[in-house]
């Protein structure tokens, strides 16, 4: 995760917030670790849990409103 965030930082040096959509049953701990790493890189990790595909449009809208560079966890 650290390497991925470092590369995002290199490719998008002006980005301040990284948006991540994740399944909380499978990736909660990974997202928590990524959030700590992002803070060290002076980034904010905006995470949106999606347990069901029907939640996806709302999660994407939320991230878009927050002007996030998006990825998946």
Average pLDDT works out at 89
Catalogue the unreliable spans: none
Largest sheet: 3 strands, parallel
Number of strands: 3
- How much of the polypeptide forms β-strand, as a percent range? 15-25%
SSE class: alpha/beta
Share of helix, binned: 40-55%
Q: What's the end-to-end separation, in Å?
A: 9 Å
The neighbouring-strand order within the major sheet is 2-1-3
Determine the number of helices (DSSP H or I, runs of at least 4 residues). 3
Radius of gyration: 12 Å
> What is the general shape?
globular
Order of helices and strands: HEHEHE
Task: Give an account of the 3D structure.
This protein is of the alpha/beta class and 73 residues long. It contains three helices and three strands, in the order H-E-H-E-H-E. The protein has helices at 2-11, 24-40, 56-65; strands spanning 17-22, 44-49, 69-72. It has a three-stranded parallel beta sheet with strand order 2-1-3, sandwiched between helices. The chain starts with a helix and ends with a strand.
Furnish the topology, listing elements before pairings.
Elements: H1 2-11, E1 17-22, H2 24-40, E2 44-49, H3 56-65, E3 69-72
Parallel strand pairs: 1-2, 1-3
